[in-house]
Amino acid sequence: MYDKSDPRSALAPKDAAAGPRTGLVAESQEAHFYDEAPQIDDATGKTWLLRGHNFVLAWSQARKGASFPRSGHVDEYAVLLPETGAVIEWNGQKADVPGWSIAFVPAGDSTVTLPAGGLMARLFTTRSDDLAKQCSNARGYDVPRSHIPEFSPWPEPRGGWKIRHYSLDIPKEEGRFGRIFRCTTMMVNVLDPFDGPRDSSKMSPHHHDDFEQCSLAIGGEFSHYLRWPWTTDMADWREDRTVTMGSPSALVIPPPVIHTTRAVGPQRNQLVDIFCPPRIDFSEKPGWVLNADDYPMPS
């Protein structure tokens, strides 16, 4: 359910379903990075870790000159740089990535260094078992989510493997939803910011059948509204929840929970949505994925 001014109102409608099966509903996973102890606190700075079904989010407040190596990393990962730049090295390549950018780093040995320190989000799949085990909610998926398909990476990028990075300094465009980038493992949507609270008469309650959404707040304050659908099994039922979070923070919304989010901070509110693997419906919209020429869809 979207307001007519929301670009998502143009998404192709899905066939009507008979209603959610039993045993689908799981708890939301949340982390208030600004108010919780980090999972890693060492010479690199502070890093908070939160997992979803398929991904691990690592939010770092890095010290000046901090380096973050990955050895024999299993698959491609994303690096979001909301403030300062980074130097990324992989397979003999070196890329100077400015702040307010997103980068994708191939599997293998790599290092991300922040010469000036600052904030950084890295997005890995849960195939990185060493990171998944350190998450604040590491036990949150002990009960498998059988309704979420097993993770499978998307096709390899055109032109072969290399460090790719993209500026987020992209103006808003009528009919396009946010600033969406994808790689073989992730889809990241850096949404258009709200200056002040969102218009409460133009909300967007909706649900996803079989994939999670992670909403990462990197500025401002947000209220997330969650409604668990009723199945025939009362064990699935939950009370409605409103989760109000400052920044930085992250909320993982499980399917098929109905959800919508309202920016409530008085100044600039900036949200980033994360999906693993990429979303088909967003990818099918012409012009929505800004690096679609580099990363093909599955055939």
Concise account of the structure shown:
By secondary structure, this protein is mainly beta. It contains 2 helices and 21 strands. The two termini are 29 Å apart.
Describe what you observe in this structure.
This protein is mainly β and 299 residues long. The chain has a single domain, classed as Jelly Rolls. 3% of the residues lie in helices and 38% in strands. It has two helices and 21 strands. Strands 1, 13, 14, 15, 16, 19 and 21 form a seven-stranded antiparallel β-sheet that branches. A seven-stranded antiparallel β-sheet has the order 2-3-4-11-6-9-12, with no helix packed on it. The chain is globular, with a radius of gyration of 19 Å. The model has no long low-confidence stretch (mean pLDDT 95). InterPro entries: RmlC-like_jellyroll, RmlC_Cupin_sf. Residues 1-21 are annotated as: Disordered. This is 5-deoxy-glucuronate isomerase.
